[in-house]
Amino acid sequence: MSYVLGDTDADAAERAREQAYAQHSGATAIATLERVWNTDLSSFDPDGPLPDFDPVLDGPEVSQGRVKHVKDPVATAQRWREIAKAENLSIRDLVVRESPRFAFVGSADTVAQKMNQYIQERAADGFILIPTVVPGGLDEFVDTVIPRLQEMGVYPDSYPAEDPTLRATMELNEYRPATEWSQARADVRHAATNGQEA
Hints:
By secondary structure, this protein is mainly alpha-helical.
């Protein structure tokens, strides 16, 4: 889960916008378009309009070693041109708009409430946090969102004193050394072999 926090929801939205543009330089925007158009677009201005021609479908891939995320480049290019024209977007603006969004954007209260909603509605059973700013992005989350989750009673504010391990917290079986597992597998193989011969 990626997130952007702010003092208010509006502040967080502005921070998210700034971070999105920081993540998509002009060169990044052109490279993103090249993967769809399968054409060298280095002569295009990232602050200018999208190419008015369709993507190249045959021929070698311009972007080697990249996974193709677009199933229909021509339809995608057409849709992007329509969006860019309707909203007066440059190449870079369009790439930022069409790039994956941050999962949660808002004040600490808003983000905590949204996370709790997902858990309560069983849309998620936990989150892996991906700070958008490193280092320090996780610190802000811990300092602001975690206390709100604790106030809601959905995040522990303490742990048992009897030396809890992750294994114990998750109520897993006690640790068994690898040698025990090796012996157990060998015993099963031996029993199976003897059973087949009988």
